[in-house]
Amino acid sequence: TNRTFTMIKPDGVENGHIGGILNMITEGGFRIVAMKLTQLTVADAKAFYAVHAERPFYGELVEFMTRGPIVAAILEKENAVEDFRTLIGATNPANAAEGTIRKKYATSMGENAVHGSDSDENAAIESAFHFAGREMF
Ligand code: GTP
Ligand code: MG
Predict the structure, then answer these.
(1) Residue 98 CB neighbour total at 10 angstroms
(2) Nearest CA to 126 among 20, 14, 40?
(3) Domains of the chain with bracketed CATH
(4) Using one digit for the tens of pLDDT, what is the confidence trace for 59-93?
(5) For the whole model, what pTM was predicted?
(6) Does any ligand 1 atom lie closer than 6 A to the CB of residue 28?
(7) Residue 122 annotated as lining a ligand binding site
(8) Which of 14, 49, 93, 110 has its CA 20 to 30 A from that of 68?
(9) pLDDT per residue as tens digits for the range 92-103
(10) Does ligand 1 lie within 6 Å of residue 60's CB atom?
(11) What is the 3-state secondary structure (H, E, C) of the chain?
């Protein structure tokens, strides 16, 4: 539908890129519907990336995602999920297109600055995990 969920990951927060990333998001035509600074627990991160549980990088991924605060947000735009995946760029910043958030701010495949939901269904699940109805505008 017209909403997606994003996180500025711990590396993006640590490196001082909250402002730069939010600027690219709003310049990209997305409206911020909900937003907070929060931190994932190990259980949260394991559940969030459960699809990768059997992958060799899973432990490293969970450790990374829990090591500091993140910015969680819900974004609104027509075709939000697909358009936001385009704006963030490829998972590996070496393959990310010019003008994408990961091209500018990601440092590696693991530490890639930002998350974007991969489907409308997951966007709804991820949004509901982080935000109560009265926190969405
Ligand atoms: P997310 O928006 O975070 O879900 O990224 P994505 O959808 O572009 O990639 P995917 O869901 O396939 O992988 C989730 C996350 O796992 C990635 O963003 C990376 O941080 C991490 N990841 C994926 N593949 C690798 C890998 O080969 N090595 C390492 N270290 N991390 C990986
Ligand atoms: Mg993904």
Answers:
(1) 7
(2) 40
(3) 3-135 (3.30.70.141)
(4) 999 999 999 999 999 999 999 999 999 999 999 99
(5) 0.96
(6) no
(7) no
(8) 93
(9) 999 999 999 999
(10) yes
(11) CCEEEEEECHHHHHCCCHHHHHHHHHHCCCEEEEEEEECCCHHHHHHHCHHHCCCCCHHHHHHHHCCCCEEEEEEECCCHHHHHHHHHCCCCHHHCCCCCHHHHHCCCCCCCCEEECCCHHHHHHHHHHHCCHHHCC
The 10s digit of each residue's pLDDT in 5-64 is 999 999 999 999 999 999 999 999 999 999 999 999 999 999 999 999 999 999 999 999
Tokens, residue 28: 């990209």
Listed in sequence order, the residues at least 6 apart from 33 whose beta carbon sits closer than 8 Å to its beta carbon are 3, 73, 74, 75, 76, 136, 137
Q: Ligand 2 centroid to 116 CA: how many Å?
A: 7
Query: Is 85 flagged in the annotation as binding?
Result: yes
User: CB burial class (10 A; 0-12, 13-18, 19+) of residue 136?
Assistant: middle
Q: Does the predicted interface ipTM exceed a cut of 0.90?
A: yes
Is the minimum distance from the CB of 116 to ligand 1 under 6 angstroms? Answer: yes
The number of the ligand 1 atom at minimal distance from the alpha carbon of 65 is: 20
